[in-house]
Design brief:
By secondary structure, the chain is α/β, with parallel strands linked by helices. It has 14 helices and 21 strands. Helix 5 crosses helix 8, helix 9 runs parallel beside helix 10 and helix 10 packs across helix 14.
Length: 398
């Protein structure tokens, strides 16, 4: 019960994503939190007070001028009786009102009157998100110390594609856990690389690999849940990045290395990315054409090894560097040699032979290789591997 005894005031704004907030309430209560919901007038157009109350197991607050409520619990007290105020979905309108300091309804009045930390989970149409006014408001809110989770990129209810989707309830719950846990990794800054890299051949073609980024995202979420500040450097992965991280999207190995260097100093670096070993030595700046003269010759050159670079001794070397080794044979022997070769502290090794079903699946079976030797972990979900790794890291640092 990671949120036992934690009180969350949940403001539900008016957007189609409000339906996800119902699931968020369940997730928070599963973790032991109590949830006091505030439904804006627009929010009530998308979810009913009855369903919110039933899931929260609490009265729903809806109207600033309800005299009964003022007698029972005034809005000032309501705004201060929580450990965290979460606004989900935070619409463009709510963000604008917050940035301007409006107090035009119960939600905005609570947000203005509070001395409690505030987290917003934006959700809106991609054009509204990208609009200069929203981006200005976002910068203002960040400057006011408000934590921002998401939004994610993807297909939207309005049929458009891009950033604006509300983060998933599990991601929001993890970010809330991180904010409230004061967990064993609080104050620790951890770099996680994830996903594949894309190495251009010409402006429209690239060399890629099948990494989904699932294990890296799960690790970042687990670290966040223990209170770490996570810098998440990801290639173009299928798995959406977790909320609550300092997100850096890159395409190539060179860009990934630059983003990792810029993130230093960190206490821990975890290299879960499947970095392409090679890139095209001189990618063409215009689209290569089919020619009668024969096939194009691609000359390859080696990419930088990010794990080995971060492991090099020096003042910026993280206290703990963790690499991954996906092997199909002699897993422990090969991974132990890899640990030596790369100079990292731990290797998380796994057997990715097709018969294991690990590649692309939701389970993993890993061996942790440290200077003390090899330690086999039972088969478990990628989320559980991540959670167990995060706990081991916390134990190693403390
Ligand atoms: O050498 P191999 O690719 O098997 O090593 C895997 C480990 O090295 C992973 O932790 C991966 O993130 C890291 N790596 C890296 N940069 C590369 C190649 C691999 O950080 N160019």
């Amino acid at each position: 019960m990671t949120l036992a005894n934690k009180r969350i005031l949940l403001i539900i704004g008016g957007g189609i994503a409000a339906f996800k907030t119902l699931d968020l309430i369940r997730r928070l209560r599963e973790r032991g939190a109590s949830v006091t919901p505030v439904l804006t007038r627009a929010g009530a157009e998308f979810v009913t007070p009855l369903s919110v109350a039933a899931l929260a197991g609490s009265k729903v607050y809806t109207d600033l001028f309800d005299l009964t409520d003022e007698a029972e619990m005034g809005h000032i007290q309501l705004s201060r009786s929580a450990d965290l105020i979460v606004v989900a979905p935070a619409t463009a309108d709510l963000m604008a009102k917050m940035a301007q300091g409006h107090a035009s309804d119960l939600a905005t009045t609570l947000l203005l009157a509070t001395d409690t930390p505030v987290m917003i989970v934006p959700a809106m149409n991609v054009r509204m998100w990208d609009h200069a006014a929203t981006q200005r408001n976002l910068a203002t809110l960040r400057g006011d110390g408000i934590a921002v989770i998401g939004p994610e990129s993807g297909d939207m209810a309005c049929g458009e594609h891009g950033p604006g989707r509300m983060s998933e309830p599990l991601q929001i719950a993890a970010a809330i856990e991180g904010a409230l846990s004061g967990g064993p990794l609080k104050g620790r800054r951890i770099l996680v690389t994830s996903g594949p890299t894309h190495e251009p051949i010409d402006p429209v073609r690239y060399i890629a690999n099948r990494s989904s980024g699932a294990q890296g995202a799960a690790i970042a979420r687990a670290l966040t849940a223990l209170g770490a500040e996570v810098v998440f450097v990801t290639g173009p992965a299928d798995t959406p990045p977790p909320g609550g991280v300092d997100l850096h999207r890159v395409e190539t190995a060179d860009q990934m290395l630059d983003a990792c260097r810029a993130a230093l100093p960190v206490d821990v670096a975890i290299c879960a990315a499947a970095v392409a070993d090679w890139r095209v030595a001189s990618a063409s700046s215009c689209k290569m054409k089919k020619t009668k003269g024969g096939l194009p010759q691609l000359e390859l050159t080696e990419n930088p090894d990010i794990l080995a670079t971060l492991s090099q001794p020096g003042p910026q070397r993280p206290a703990l560097v963790v690499g991954f080794a996906a092997e199909t044979d002699d897993v422990i022997e090969n991974a132990t040699a890899k640990r030596q070769r790369k100079g990292c502290d731990w290797i998380v090794a796994n057997d990715v032979s097709p018969q294991t079903g690990i590649m692309g699946g939701s389970d993993n079976e890993v061996t942790l290789i440290t200077d003390a030797g090899a330690e086999g972990w039972p088969r478990m979900s990628k989320d559980e591997v991540a959670a167990r790794l995060a706990v081991r890291i916390a134990a190693d640092l403390n």
